Amino acid sequence: MSKKSLDFLKQLINTPSPAGFEQPAAALWRKEAAQYVDKVNADILGNSIAILNPKGSPRIMLAAHVDEIGFMVQYITDEGYLYFGPIGGHDATVVVGQRVWIHGEKGPVLGVLGRKAIHLMKQEERGKNVELDDLWIDIGAASKEEALKRVNVGDPITYASTMEALSEKVYTSHAFDDKMGAYVLIETMKLLKGKKIKPCVCFVATTQEETTYAGSRSSSFGVDATVGIAVDVSHATDNPASDKKKKGDFKLGDGPMIAIGAQINPKVQKLLFSVAKNKKIPHQREASPWHSGTDAIAMQVARAGMATAVVSVPLRYMHTPNEVLHVDDLENTAKLLAAFLEAVTPEMDWIP
Ligand SMILES: [Zn+2]
After folding, report:
1. 325 alpha carbon to ligand 1 midpoint, in Å?
2. Got the DSSP string for 147-183?
3. CA 178 – ligand 1 centroid, Å
4. What is the pLDDT of residues 133-151, one digit of tens each?
5. Per residue in 106-117, pLDDT tens?
6. Which residues does the annotation mark as catalytic?
7. Domains of the chain
């Protein structure tokens, strides 16, 4: 991974984008994408669409969601503490004790998730599960009046962790899900720059995946593609808490996970596996027996249907402030997508 690419990924991560509040990260993505494609648009739901080879055929949609999970201020107590609701899915046990940014109108405000100190807990409280409703954010305000000078009800909140290296190629951050996907789309554009490809490719940084799939639903209709690939994260199972019997065997650094299942068009899937094999791109085979939990849910049934596939980067500790991934998986995912797009011709038939 080049320094320039790493810097862009860090910048994208550091630009807040909880579902429904993606505008700053979406604008950053569009600015970056504009260097590599023919046209960049945005739509009414805030989706960003970067179009390469607009006259090509067939139309292919590559989607990655630029939104992240977060929280929202719901209530401010007379003492100046903030109570909040979740944007997307959270495990309350990992939220406790975190630092967060509250994105107020006048700029970001740092807060901490307070909890009663262990010394002050009764015996029965110590073993109790934490629930989000029990948690509050402390911004150091002495009263509601003082808090209201910096934050308000409705302000979105994100984790305050930053992207850091754990080892040479393994990094941790919040919001890799799925800003790393939006980043991989940019890397794919770079790989295709100056190459002649047959299809028209619409790279879409979708919004609101973590809450309603509203972004992929509307953009799939607008893009009107024949083939679509959702690029997202999936669970690596190479850590002590994961059960391989339940999910399969997936390792960081072993390459993108190519899904097989009801949401996956067999012909798109076959072509993905064959280009991965021919170009010697490391990859992993993922069974997806139910729905994929990705934008492919909306893409597959857009208009009269889209031939969809899901390509995922293995991720540890999904939806926590410290998700972990391997940067080689990002590069290999971009290589796989670029090789796929180079292999597609207008004559291909996608009916299974
Ligand atoms: Zn997610």
Report:
1. 14
2. HHTT--TT-EEEE----EESSSSEEEES-HHHHHHHH
3. 7
4. 889 999 999 999 999 999 9
5. 999 999 998 888
6. 209
7. 3-68+174-343 (3.40.630.10), 70-159 (2.40.30.40)
